[in-house]
Amino acid sequence: MNKVFDHYARYYDLLYQDKDYAAEAAYVASHIQKCNPSAQTILELGCGTGAHAEFLARLGFSVIGVDMSQTMLEQAETRKAGLPIEIAEKLTFIQGDVRSIRTGEYYDAVISLFHVMSYQISNSDLEDAFATAATHLNPGGVFLFDFWYGPAVLSQKPETRERELENEKIKISRIAEPEMFLSENKINVNYRFLIEELATGKITKMSEKHCMRYLFKPELELFMKHAGFQPVSFVEWMTNTPMTSDGWSSFSVAKWVA
């Protein structure tokens, strides 16, 4: 993913303030506990500002969060510093690439959320990310991740979207303009931001390109098998219903059996 989020990590939590991280963490935890009721440790690949990690820690898990973006990790550390000590001590954040990080430790579960796996746009990227998960799991451990579901993307097609948000300090206008590359199963989402500091009226403009891959169940099963995983489930994210062409966001659980 390079350091694609570095430019606007400062604004990330505002942009996704309506995202229910507590409910999502509880959802992921329920799948972990279904596979392994005694699970206690989690490695999170692509932890961002640490919101999912925080709520998983509140549920009793110890979480190691990995992210490439130093500015994201700074936000995660700020979040951690504001938590009660009994929660904060369950959290560790480190810089690393989900394709190559090796912590030297083993975990009961590896998770990768908010479509981090769809940022792995080449076959080698995906192979490496699955290998990272496999390398860090205890015997019988599980890898849980969400992703852009190909049939839904192709059915609905991406469209330009605009958003405006503000808090007591800043106002943000964001435009997301997609470009589809059908032969590569890829979408480039071109973001343009206009950020106004309310106290001074200062305006900042910036742009970022996020390259995303939409994925299909058969290809994911092949990547899983190659890395030593056995598929457990493929469902629509947050509903546990079958994947359909109506829902972009899907969720998979794979058990490490190699």
UniProtKB/TrEMBL annotation:
<dbReference type="InterPro" id="IPR029063">
    <property type="entry name" value="SAM-dependent_MTases_sf"/>
</dbReference>
<dbReference type="GO" id="GO:0032259">
    <property type="term" value="P:methylation"/>
</dbReference>
<feature type="domain" description="Methyltransferase">
    <location>
        <begin position="42"/>
        <end position="141"/>
    </location>
</feature>
<dbReference type="InterPro" id="IPR041698">
    <property type="entry name" value="Methyltransf_25"/>
</dbReference>
<keyword id="KW-0808">Transferase</keyword>
<protein>
    <submittedName>
        <fullName>Class I SAM-dependent methyltransferase</fullName>
    </submittedName>
</protein>
<keyword id="KW-0489">Methyltransferase</keyword>
<dbReference type="GO" id="GO:0008168">
    <property type="term" value="F:methyltransferase activity"/>
</dbReference>
<dbReference type="Pfam" id="PF13649">
    <property type="entry name" value="Methyltransf_25"/>
</dbReference>
